[in-house]
Amino acid sequence: MCGLVGLVAKSDVAPEIYDALTVLQHRGQDAAGIVTCGEGRFSQRKGEGLVRDVFRQHHMQRLRGSMGIGHVRYPTAGSSGTALAQPFYVNSPYGIALAHNGNLTNSEQLTRELFQDDLRHLNTDSDSEVLLNVFAHELQTLGKLSPRAADIFAAVEEVHRRCRGGYAVVGLLVNYGVFGFRDPSGIRPLVIGARETDSGQEYMIASESVALDVLGFTLLDDVAPGEAIFIDQEGNLHRRCCSLASRLIPCIFEHVYFARPDSLMDGISVYKTRMRQGAALAKKIRRERPDLHIDVIIPIPDTSRIAAQSMAHELNIKFREGLMKNRYIGRTFIMPGQSHRKKSVRQKLNPVPLEFEGKNVMLVDDSIVRGTTCRQIIEMAREAGAANVFFASAAPPVRYPNVYGIDMPSATELIAHSRSVEEVCQMIGADWLVYQDLDDLIQCSLEGNPAVDGFDCSVFSGEYITGDIDQKYLDRVALLRNDEAQTRRRVTVQAEGAVVGLHNDV
């Protein structure tokens, strides 16, 4: 999962892209990058780390231009390193920089086609570079000296024809403008906003509406499934649907975990969705355990707080902040390596004994993936004196890997894979465990926008909406994503260093 920003303004855009990336930092903490365009030249800065660490004042001073794109990244398939920091760049045709959120499920096939048929060289094993080169090749085959919006849209049509998976994209053409597009199923999010200034209209594309809010842009719309956006350097907005087979089936895990609660996605308030998740969980608790005595409901900060508050209100039980969070530790879900995650949980959270001593505690989390975090937190609760520790997940059991851009572990490393709820409860050490029902989770999101055609729930159901995922593909993903493979790849990257397609010396 990554965060994207594209901006066309009337003055230098780098400072505002920086601000937008900090707002989207929750979507990726592995690397960050900005590319701007001014006077016919690209300027770039990208590297590993948080936004605040990658960009210094002297970097920002050299990122000149009134058009630009930015990216925050977390590693997929165990990959990391500066070489894979985005945006990526190709010089032909025109000069194109591109940043991508998602995953191409047919990247191996496309890699072969790009080499054998399109005669294009790839510098990394990133599917983002694959997507960039597919787009560049299709734009180049049009043979136009000066591309227009219609040419951008024609190239995007071919991207949709050739590429499979979930993807949202922002890109930059030297001297021409910024473009963005979204996969035909709308799996990965993308929004567009506008801002009126004394110098004229300015436009911004971003992964979440909250980035628009913070910079004073008004949300115009979500980029529709299969739609492409082009904002030329004069500030004119062009839009076109570039896929005849488009349908809106966004990733429901955005509502569960990834998105900020103050974002709107496809017309759905993430905040309200999480409130509804908590209320639905409360109703299930009443149905299944009407005699269950709970003294206090405590969220595992931060993404479960809204659901826990709503649950407490519905059940008329005290809500307390019993776990204090160290704000300087990253999100453990997107940290590479199991040993790193285990260490981070203890560094990140500390219990308030007063809220646990002698009490029947209901802990609430957004989801349970590996079970590492919740097992350690349950141990903390018992050490703090809890009489009984119950556990509620605002999401159903995560039993299958995600193939559309969320780097969940291999199926065998998911605690709920091939296990019953009772077995998971025993493994995490809870006195009782309750999961959200999938139908309830879908309804919690669907209520925000009944026009949505459905949701990608593959991590819960094992049903992959693109229709091209078989066991052979999942087995290959498992080999890339297990913790041993991730550790091996990080060691290799550190030993070999990085080769980047565009000089990274600003």
List the SSEs and their pairings.
Blueprint: E1 3-8, H1 14-23, E2 31-38, E3 41-48, H2 51-54, H3 57-62, E4 67-73, E5 88-90, E6 96-104, H4 107-116, H5 127-140, H6 149-162, E7 165-173, E8 177-182, E9 191-197, E10 200-206, H7 209-214, E11 218-222, E12 227-232, E13 237-241, H8 253-258, E14 264-265, E15 268-269, H9 270-288, E16 296-299, H10 305-315, E17 318-319, E18 323-325, H11 338-348, E19 349-351, E20 360-365, H12 372-383, E21 388-393, H13 421-428, E22 432-435, H14 438-446, H15 458-461, H16 471-481, H17 483-496
Parallel strand pairs: 16-17, 16-20, 20-21, 21-22
Antiparallel strand pairs: 1-4, 1-10, 2-3, 2-4, 5-6, 6-7, 7-8, 8-12, 9-10, 9-11, 12-13, 14-15, 18-19
Helix pairs in contact: 4-5, 5-6, 9-10, 9-14, 11-12
TL;DR of this structure?
The protein is 33% helix and 23% strand.
